[in-house]
């Protein structure tokens, strides 16, 4: 496999190699390149210690991004490139962070501490893939590196990461990893709410519906008041966090929604806004119903939606109308609906 590494990243790798060290791009960028998607950012890892890396880039501005983890950010001709020393994680005693990390000189050790096979690949001229990440990407599988239960006990945030990736990438979760998700969900209580919520937001903004329904029990360990029955209106909902949360909690009492979102550390104003929207959807209120919408199921079928997509789209449209995002006018609603058809 050949990955087109951007010029400045290439030069960073070369500089480290010319100084006698190994260097690779690693993690999410290799995964995305292997999927045929352009990576958002390129992370570099190296056998050089942070001190050695700093010496190689002595002529550049360097920021110590995470001394403990061995990460430096080098300002390299207009790009900021994160360079992390190969490392091994020590013991984990809090289900989140290793008690210590130590620097190592071989890439395989570094790759073995990473969460999923697809994230445990490195590249420099050739692919380093000791755990079969490329095969898993081709098969569209999320699989832990090593024993899934052990990896989730080390760091329970990986549970939410697995689900977030499943939703974002539309991948399935391999059986052993899947079983371990369910048996270790209770450990999510040891993880800071902010961290869980950040992953949950990405989960909700991904393909989501099948992941949320299938792993509802797991996600409920991170999301208080998650409804038993996930409303299918989110299937076609716009990719707007507020809208999706309001749909998700649409049938929940607004005081419970507010308490749940506060516990998840959403900002106060944001929480109030969602609770307000949810309360406005109260079935006892005088809000519009689906039958009040300026489009009907037939209109959506004419656009190409079918089966339960139609009902889900109508509910999503209703939410938009209620929240004031879209006017209850035929053309406006049809426009939105065309977006739903395209997104499938
Ligand atoms: P994206 O940035 O697209 O969300 P990513 O894979 O780059 O995905 P990051 O959180 O940026 O995710 O992490 C970079 C890499 O670090 C991952 O690809 C993975 O190899 C490793 N990693 C991140 N978080 C963990 C974790 N909790 N446990 C083990 N490895 C991790
Ligand atoms: Mg990343």
Structure description:
The chain folds into four domains: 130 residues, Beta Polymerase, domain 2 (2-Layer Sandwich), CATH 3.30.460; 84 residues, Hydrophobic Seed Protein, CATH 1.10.110; 57 residues, no CATH class; 50 residues. It is 47% helix and 12% strand. It has 17 helices and eleven strands. Helix 6 packs parallel to helix 8 and helix 7 runs parallel beside helix 9. 40% of the residues are buried. Bound molecules: adenosine-5'-triphosphate and magnesium ion. The site of magnesium ion has 2 residues, from loops.
Helix content: 40-55%
* Rg value: 23 Å
Q: What is the averaged pLDDT score?
A: 92
The distinct ligands, each listed once, are: adenosine-5'-triphosphate, magnesium ion
H/E element order:
HEHEHEEEEEHEEHEHHEHHHHHHHHHH
By DSSP, the count of extended strands is 11
Widest beta sheet: strand line-up = 3-4-5-2-1-8-9
N-to-C terminal Cα separation, in Å?
30 Å
**For the record, what CATH class of the largest domain applies?**
Alpha Beta
Proportion of β residues?
A: 5-15%
Helix tally equals 17
Report low-confidence residues grouped into runs of 5 or more.
none
By CATH, the superfamily of the largest domain comes out as Beta Polymerase, domain 2
Overall, the morphology is elongated
| Tally of discrete structural domains | 4
CATH architecture annotation name of the largest domain: 2-Layer Sandwich
Q: What structural class do you assign from the helix and strand content?
A: alpha+beta
């Amino acid at each position: 496999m050949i990955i087109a590494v951007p010029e400045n990243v290439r030069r960073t790798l070369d500089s480290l190699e010319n100084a006698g060290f190994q260097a690779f791009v690693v993690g999410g960028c290799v995964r995305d390149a292997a999927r045929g998607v352009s990576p958002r950012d390129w992370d570099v890892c190296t056998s050089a210690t942070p001190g050695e890396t700093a010496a190689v880039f002595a002529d550049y501005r360097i920021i110590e991004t995470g001394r403990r983890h061995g990460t430096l950010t080098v300002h390299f001709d207009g790009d900021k490139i994160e360079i992390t020393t190969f490392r091994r994680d020590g013991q984990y005693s809090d289900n989140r962070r290793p008690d210590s990390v130590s620097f190592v000189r071989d890439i395989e050790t570094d790759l073995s501490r990473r969460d999923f096979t697809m994230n445990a690949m490195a590249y420099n001229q050739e692919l380093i893939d000791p755990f079969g990440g490329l095969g898993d990407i081709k098969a569209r599988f999320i699989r832990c590196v090593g024993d899934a239960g052990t990896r989730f006990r080390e760091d329970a945030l990986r549970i939410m990461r697995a689900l977030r990736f499943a939703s974002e990438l539309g991948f399935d979760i391999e059986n052993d990893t899947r079983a371990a998700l369910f048996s270790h969900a209770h450990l999510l209580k040891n993880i800071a709410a902010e961290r869980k919520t950040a992953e949950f937001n990405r989960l909700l903004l991904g393909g989501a519906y099948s992941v949320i329904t299938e792993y509802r029990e797991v996600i409920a360990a991170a999301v208080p008041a998650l409804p038993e029955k996930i409303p299918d209106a989110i299937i076609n909902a716009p990719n707007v966090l507020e809208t999706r949360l309001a749909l998700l909690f649409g049938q929940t009492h607004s005081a419970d929604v507010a308490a749940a979102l506060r516990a998840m550390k959403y900002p106060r104003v944001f929480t109030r806004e969602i609770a307000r929207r949810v309360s406005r959807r109260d079935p006892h209120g005088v809000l519009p119903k689906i039958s009040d919408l300026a489009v009907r199921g037939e209109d959506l079928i004419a656009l190409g939606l079918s089966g339960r997509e139609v009902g889900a789209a109508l509910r999503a449209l209703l939410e938009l109308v209620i929240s004031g995002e879209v006017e209850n006018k035929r053309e406006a609603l049809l426009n939105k609906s065309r977006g739903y058809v395209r997104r499938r």
